């Protein structure tokens, strides 16, 4: 018999004490990207193996990809949809992401730089109005072989728009790539090329 006033706990009573709640896992950053075939994939490279997807896996992002091959800030491409329209129809109705990346300009050939600048600026203004607290990064035209002169004019027009809207601009034309990273079409990256682009993006964003 236990002494008076002493309570002896049965095993089932001891286990009934409330356990501390498990900590909630950290939320993965929500990142959205709108772009052209370099972003959505082309040839043997599917969307989930593009440079954006590879960077997302390395940085632990939850990625939403929008856009289509052949499109640009001004050029609607075969889908009849510029980057602005892709943003409006595919992304703008969603909850605000932590980061939005706009990547392109490769398809805005034969377009005056002034038109590209105005289109890029209009898109960035729209993004800021819709998601005022979202970080925005703009990536200029991607050219992994020798770029033509017009690509630099487009690059500069986009860079000016990014500066005017106070967003980060990243310049792939300022990098040295290898022709071995390009598919036989002479334009699009191989799987290894996408991996190299992903490493460049991770580094440019201050990742590992």
Automatic annotation (TrEMBL):
SGNH hydrolase-type esterase domain sequence ranges: 34-196
Coiled-coil annotated spans: none
Entry protein name: Lysophospholipase L1
InterPro entries: SGNH_hydro, SGNH_hydro_sf
SUPFAM superfamilies: SGNH hydrolase (SSF52266)
Organism per entry: Streptosporangium canum
Region (Disordered): 1-21
Biased composition (Low complexity): 9-19
